[in-house]
TrEMBL record:
The lineage of its organism: Bacteria, Bacillati, Actinomycetota, Actinomycetes, Kitasatosporales. Keywords: Disulfide bond, Electron transport, Redox-active center, Transport. This is Tetratricopeptide repeat protein. Belongs to the thioredoxin family. Pfam families: Thioredoxin, TPR_19, TPR_20. Residues 36-153 form the Thioredoxin domain. SUPFAM superfamilies: Thioredoxin-like (SSF52833).
Length: 319
């Protein structure tokens, strides 16, 4: 089952902005509780086996509190047996800042297909309901640690998620009911319009929020998503891709195809297409491609490693 708040491989999700805000509020409340109690030991059970039936509760819902690393593996896979113990050991060292969910692909083909896994072992992460591919194959320990360090940083900076707090299993006491943190009414109205598919209304609502609070990350991300979805609305995907393939010099065709790439979850394809368009054009055409690429960076988020890579590629072709 692919729940509503999940965005596979970067695909745009109408509820992503709202989920991020809610996750940030929960994380801030958890940090406040931990500070009042003087902190607490990391919980046990940081490595769990997950199947399709438990995916929503054990991965999606928990990803609002802690980044969940997913290890797709199989009993017959030699490299999986090398990577699996390494992941388990490293995740345990994070002491509650990460969870590791192990998914046997032979027993969970639907999840395997939904994530678009091409081979195993394959490692993904889910943060605030959003899926992010990390790496494939039995990566060396240094690469694993660097990738997970970056994941922890992104989760905290973009979503305010810093991990689990609480006593080990068997010693847990019922948590007090969390007080409801009121959401900014203007931002809530923008989220509601986006969820309802009122793209024009969402664009205007997010602009209103930014007029009062130009630094609002949620409003910037929401506006970028609403504008993107408005641009692709009504497009014939097959025709757009045919025009882009047949007319590499047609900048407008490349912009439309890049938008469709991103909405379809093909993030690297969208970025690569626009970087190539910037490289082969000049003047107003080059500027149009560059600005569109920057807009798509906003949709994915500045800290996403795919954005970091594409920014470097853009800099190389510009300078």
């Amino acid at each position: 089952m692919q729940p509503r708040n999940m965005s596979i491989s970067g695909a745009v999700d109408l509820a992503a902005v709202k989920a991020a805000g809610e996750a940030r509020q929960k994380a801030e409340h958890a940090r406040a509780q931990a500070a009042e109690g003087g902190g607490a030991p990391a919980p046990a059970g940081l490595v769990i086996d997950v199947d399709e039936a438990g995916f929503e509760n054990e991965v999606l819902q928990r990803s609002a509190e802690v980044p969940v690393v997913i290890d797709f593996w199989a009993e017959w896979c030699g490299p999986c047996k090398q990577l699996g113990p390494l992941l388990e050991r490293v995740v345990e060292e994070y002491a509650g800042r990460l969870l590791l969910a192990k998914i046997d692909v032979d027993q969970n083909q639907m999840l395997f297909q939904q994530f678009g896994v091409q081979g195993i072992p394959a490692v993904f992460a889910v943060v605030a309901g959003q899926a992010l591919p990390l790496f494939q194959g039995a990566a060396p320990e240094q690469q694993v640690r660097e990738t997970l360090d970056q994941l922890v940083q992104v989760a905290e900076q973009r979503f305010g998620i810093t991990g689990l707090q609480g006593a080990p299993e068997g010693e847990q006491t019922p948590a007090p009911e969390e007080p409801q943190v009121p959401e900014d009414p203007a931002l809530a109205a923008a989220h509601d319009a986006l969820d309802a598919g009122d793209l024009a209304g969402a664009v205007q609502a997010y602009r209103n929020v930014l007029a009062d609070d130009p630094a609002s990350t949620e409003a910037k991300l929401g506006l970028a998503q609403a504008e993107l979805l408005g641009r692709v609305q009504g497009l014939d995907a097959q025709q757009v891709r045919k025009e882009a393939a047949g007319n590499p010099a047609d900048v407008a065709a490349q912009l439309r195809a890049a938008d469709l790439d991103l909405v379809g979850g093909h993030v690297e394809d969208a970025f690569g297409r626009l970087v190539e368009t910037v490289q082969r054009t000049a003047g107003e055409d080059r500027e149009a491609a560059r600005l569109r690429l920057l807009e798509l960076f906003e949709v994915i988020g500045a800290d996403d490693p795919r954005v970091v890579t594409a920014r470097s590629a853009l800099a190389r072709v510009l300078f």
